[in-house]
Design a protein that fits this description.
The protein is α+β, with helices and mostly antiparallel strands and 158 residues long. The chain has two helices and seven strands.
């Protein structure tokens, strides 16, 4: 089916993001049990005709009371996305979507949360234009970390 479509991939697999949209990949881990854990974001956006990824890591002190749990930003770096990293991102989105449809029952108190959202830059599309999320009860899904590593190791840090 894709072969019959006229798709411009000259800017890479995530070319649509060049129009000003932002792809936000999010992970919240559960090292503090049912009250959550550290948070990570991969924010992919266009800047000066290149795709970039802002990597954000917020740590948490699990020993603090849950009602006053505070986060400390340990990383806030920007990397230029290579076409390899863009392809890895598309593969990640495919995996996340598949896991969402194969999701485990939501009768649990501990799990890692993964989500992907596209925020539109268009005035008339201020809402989300794409969203998928999944709770990993097994705590074994490592695709977010693999993608983050791919982006960081193949990119030109800016």
């Amino acid at each position: 089916m894709v072969d019959s479509l006229d798709i411009d991939t000259s800017k890479g697999p995530l070319g649509e993001l060049y129009l000003g949209d932002t792809l936000i990949l999010f992970a919240r881990y559960s090292e503090c049990g049912e009250f959550g854990g550290h948070k990570e974001w991969l924010k992919i956006f266009s800047d000066d005709s290149a795709l970039k990824c802002k990597v954000i890591y917020d740590s948490v002190n699990c020993d603090s009371p849950t009602e006053t749990m505070t986060f400390a930003r340990l990383e806030n770096s920007i990397f230029q996305m290579t076409k390899t990293a863009q392809s890895a991102t598309v593969n990640y989105l495919n995996e996340l979507t598949q896991m969402r449809f194969l999701r485990q029952e939501p009768d649990f108190h501990v799990g890692n949360l993964y989500s992907a959202v596209v925020r539109s830059s268009m005035d008339w599309e201020q809402d989300t234009t794409y969203e998928v999320w999944w709770w990993d009860q097994s705590l074994k899904w490592t695709e977010f970390q693999k993608l983050k590593n791919e982006i960081k190791t193949t990119a030109n840090k800016k």
